[in-house]
Design brief:
Its cofactor is Ca(2+). The chain has about 950 residues and is mainly beta.
Length: about 950
């Protein structure tokens, strides 16, 4: 006999002890990890034309049946792919006399059901909605019953295909959510709608079926079972709906920062005796749109920090699980998000439950993507969505369709069905005082967007194709949104890459080219660099920019960007760190930071530290008490009690945690600047003076076993060799942009040092270039130059090095993720070690997801690099601030749209100016000030304004070591 599940916690409800509870008997499994085999026949495609078995719930493509379809594809087989299911089951004899409903939580797309050969009811059309049939009269209690379901992947109703099957996402077929029976007393509660307001008032509509009921009694409970307030009741009149009302003094309100929940039990009484009890988990809160003002939760103006999320997992398609829902909500919370939009259909109930309990505001959406349901079909599906989801406090807004897929006839249905009267919006439309335009440029202007009069929150912005968007551009957008009184924030597109396992192609992961590679996370939730940028930009603790100088007294000016939480409720800790030198062991990113590639990643703890460790030894640690700093933009100060020797350390880290212990963010501030660190590392003295020889084409310099050659014709480094062999660093320095106008090299002996200097013509962007070779074999390069123009794409110096010889890198600077000009946040200063990879962000690697962090790209706040190679390592040290390290050129997609910025020539660069990156739908220059080209005014080439780069090279093949105190 299948297990029966009572639909409430009876131990909490003394009144309900004599009442019957709704009993649940699953006919299928409950999620992607717990399935039940049903008999199955697929009409066309793989493994078709024969009866076999299939796990339920599932999407049949992932089980080896039918054909994979992406929504844009034109496929002549559409409409022909049909699955037939059969399953035998028994129900208890004592269900005789009960009302029994057969419930499908979701099936794609047209579903016809028969029980014991008889139709259970009319065909259901629409994939993402819970539908049910009363099969009481069709069942044989105590005997074997046969369920038959015919599921067509595409609908016979073209409006359903327009709304669901022609979208920009993967299309699947099959029974993809659980199927179960619910048994209720003949006289029972069929629906409960609760409206619990921020003022503590509660009203509920209780819908009943059957005859003879005389009263409904309600009781509120805390989640630990304590009664909250007194019983409240109402007589059942002739109508099938009974209105109950009560009020709870000092109700603990639901917000995303304080997701307080209650349970409310409703007991139906007949002849004075309880006959049926139903309970719901609720939260007290009020959501409203105030015209030309903003979105208000519990009377407080709020801004959405949100993301769009598909129900998706690579090995199971749209079939998910409670564990996956909890993981995804925790990942969003770890990015300091407070909201999520359902793209583009209602989600699993366990996802909404996770949002209720963990704290995310939800925009729940009727399916529609450029097309919409017809009114009869849409009305039925809208009613089904509301009945399933209406009591989740996390749902604060209903969305009627996406990007033109709006049926205006469904707005009154939402108004009529929703007791809470939540706001209704149309995604990418001006509607009821809201403007949700998608992919708006930074300043849309001309009487619209933030220059208009409506409350603005784009339900999609910064389309995160590959490594573009998401974090790139977000800081500019968010500072504008935060400051603008009519902005209510916005929602990024989207949460994770839609990489599906192709069982028809050897298990490769497929995003259908650039269609599904839009995630902040990889398909198995691997973290891209934008994950940490979003985490910092959307931190509710905002640090005003400041620099650490000898006069620093430990004081930081901070702003409270929470909506409901005083900063004195948060926890702050600090750490002073001495960073290791080249060659010392340092941590690479852990498997958790790189992102799990297997489903066992779902077991990760919800409050696991989400920022990679930057290495180093913590020599001073402590906590600090935050003063009362009120929410919604109030400024105050935090002060670190620094020890007397704090200036002897390299970095100050400060971590903020939510009241529940979850990390908000860890910030880093450099104490030791590059010039000081360089002086610790460089070695100038050697056993004998450096020596120079020359040929017609080369200057050759040797010192302490290191030999270098410089071309007299080009002025570039031609070769490097030490006692162990060749180090293939060549062809530099080359300007990233601008005319060189090289005229020649000169050489001179400067004591024990050899100096090589270049001469340039009047058109050259170079002011000077000098190589100095020291007796130790160390080499210094000093270059002064002007960028190409007042505004320019790139500025810096490049060298060539064969990528095939690289195994990895260790460097001191910001990491471990790369940066773009418009995505500088989300890193920490530290010493990082990273193995070589050729990851192209968002592109799948056969059966595996991408490997993060990527190796190739730009890294900010550069101090030093040791390049780890198949031959000999070498180290480069920079003694100036504001320099970027460039490691090779990332591999970009063949169709990158705006996400393949220009890179300088060569493979290793040291840059003063780097490029931004755009999104799938926007050029970087339209995404805010950070997306513009670099600008530099040189005052007519006044040498005092030239950009200067000083680099030290250690070609000895040994790792540079810091000097002891006595050597400094």
């Amino acid at each position: 006999m299948p297990k029966l599940y009572p639909f409430l916690l009876a131990a909490l409800l003394p009144l309900a002890s004599q009442a019957q509870q709704t009993q649940i008997q699953y006919l299928s499994g409950t999620d992607k990890d717990h399935t039940v085999k049903w008999k199955f026949h697929c009409s066309t495609g793989r493994n078709s034309g024969k009866w076999t078995t299939i796990p339920v719930p599932s999407n049949w493509e992932l089980q080896g049946f039918g054909k994979y379809n992406y929504g844009h594809a034109k496929d002549t087989a559409r409409g022909k792919e049909v699955g037939q299911y059969r399953y035998e089951f028994k129900v208890p004899k004592n269900w005789d006399g009960k009302t029994v409903n057969l419930v499908f939580d979701g099936a794609m797309t047209d579903t016809e059901v028969r029980i014991n050969g008889q139709p259970a009811g009319p065909m259901h059309q629409g994939s993402y909605y819970r539908f049910k049939y009363d099969i009481t009269k069709l069942l044989k209690p105590g005997k074997t019953n046969l369920l038959e379901a015919t599921v067509a992947k595409h609908s016979a109703n073209e409006s359903v295909n327009d709304a669901e099957r022609r979208g920009d996402f993967w299309l699947f077929g099959g029974i993809f959510r659980p199927v179960f029976l619910e048994a209720l007393p003949a006289t029972h509660i069929s629906r409960v709608a609760v409206d619990a307001k921020a003022d503590g008032s509660l009203r509920a509509d209780v819908y009943t079926q059957g005859s003879g009921a005389d009263e409904v009694v309600g009781q509120l409970y805390t989640l630990d079972g304590q009664k909250a307030g007194a019983e409240f009741r109402a007589a059942v009149a002739g109508s099938a709906t009974t209105r109950l009302q009560t009020s709870l003094n000092q109700a603990r309100l639901w917000t995303p920062e304080t997701p307080n929940l209650y349970r409310v039990a409703f007991t139906l009484r007949k002849g004075g005796q309880p006959v049926h009890v139903v309970d719901k988990r609720i939260g007290f809160r009020t959501m409203e749109v105030r015209e030309r003002d903003g979105m208000y939760l519990n009377g407080v103006k709020i801004k959405f920090k949100g993301v769009n999320r598909h129900s998706f997992w690579p090995t199971s398609g749209r079939v998910t699980s409670k564990a996956l829902s909890i993981q995804d909500v925790n990942l969003m919370r770890d990015m300091n998000m407070n909201a999520v939009r359902m793209a583009h259909y209602p989600p699993d109930d366990h996802f909404l439950a996770a949002c209720d309990s963990l704290g995310l505001m939800v925009l729940d959406e009727i399916a529609g993507w450029h097309g919409n349901y017809d009114t009869p079909t849409g009305t039925k599906l809208t009613e089904e969505m509301v009945r399933k989801d209406e009591n989740h406090p996390s749902i604060v807004v209903w969305v009627n369709g996406n990007e033109g897929g709006h049926n205006f006839d469904l707005d009154p249905v939402l108004d009529r069905m929703d007791l809470q009267q939540r706001p209704v919006i149309h995604a990418w439309q001006v509607f009821r005082g809201t403007d949700t335009q998608h992919y708006i440029n930074y300043d849309y202007g001309n009487g619209t967007h933030l220059q208009g009069h409506n409350v603005v929150f784009p339900t999609e912005f910064l389309h995160g194709l590959y490594d573009g968007g998401h974090g790139a551009g977000l800081e500019d957008y968010w500072e504008q949104m935060w400051a603008h009184p009519r902005s209510a924030g916005g929602f990024l597109w989207d949460f994770s890459d839609a990489g599906v396992v192709r069982t028809d192609k050897g298990g490769i992961l497929d995003t259908d080219g650039n269609h599904g590679a839009d995630g902040i996370l990889g398909p198995y939730r691997e973290k891209e660099g934008s994950f940490f940028t979003i985490k910092e930009v959307w931190s509710p603790v905002f640090f005003e920019r400041r620099e650490i100088t000898p006069a620093f007294d430990g004081t930081f000016r901070v702003q409270n960007r929470f909506h409901f939480t005083d900063l004195n409720q948060c926890k702050f800790t600090w750490k002073l760190v001495k960073l290791p030198g080249p060659g010392d062991p340092t941590p690479g990113p852990s498997p958790q930071e790189r992102g799990a590639r297997r489903e066992k990643s779902l077991s990760a703890p919800p409050h696991a530290r989400t920022h990679p460790s930057p290495g180093g030894e913590g020599l001073g640690v402590g906590s600090l008490t935050a003063p009362s700093i009120a929410p919604n933009g109030t400024y105050g100060t935090l002060k670190v009690a620094l020890p007397a020797d704090w200036q002897q350390h390299d970095v100050l880290y400060l971590t903020a945690n939510y009241p529940d212990g979850r990390e908000i963010y860890t910030w880093s501030w450099p104490i030791a600047r590059p010039s000081a660190v360089a002086q610790r590392l460089i070695r100038l003295e050697g056993p004998t003076a450096a020596k120079l020889t020359e040929t017609d084409s080369l200057y050759n310099v040797s010192a302490n076993g290191v030999e270098l050659s410089f071309s007299r014709r080009s002025g570039l480094l031609r070769s490097v060799r030490n006692a162990k062999g060749v180090i293939p660093l060549t062809n530099g320095p080359v300007l990233a942009e601008g005319e060189t106008a090289f005229e020649g090299l000169s050489q001179r002996q400067d004591g024990p040092n050899v100096v090589i200097e270049a001469k340039f013509g009047k058109q050259s962007r170079y002011q000077s270039l000098q190589w100095t070779v020291y007796p130790s074999g160390w080499v210094r390069l000093t270059a002064k130059y002007f960028p190409k123009d007042y505004d320019f794409a790139l500025a810096g110096l490049s060298f060539s090095y064969p990528e095939k010889d690289v195994r990895g890198a260790q460097w001191r600077g910001d990491g471990p993720y790369r940066v773009w000009k418009d995505r500088l946040k989300g890193t920490n200063l530290g010493v990082w070690t990273k193995g070589y990879n050729d990851t192209s962000t968002g592109e799948m690697n056969g059966t595996r997801g991408p490997e993060y962090p990527e190796f190739k790209g730009y890294y900010s706040n550069f101090y030093w690099l040791t390049l780890q190679t198949t031959g000999q390592p070498f180290t480069v040290i920079c003694d100036q601030e504001d320099v970027y390290l460039r490691l090779f050129t990332p591999r970009f997609s063949a169709t990158p749209y705006n996400t393949a910025p220009a890179f300088p020539s060569g493979q290793l660069s040291f840059m003063h100016g780097i490029t931004p990156i755009g999104t799938k739908s926007q050029k970087a220059e339209n995404m805010g000030p950070m997306g513009k080209t670099n600008m530099y005014y040189d005052y007519g080439k006044d040498p005092s304004y030239a950009k200067e780069m000083t680099l030290y090279f250690d070609f000895s093949g040994q790792q540079a070591q810091e000097k002891s105190v006595g050597q400094r």
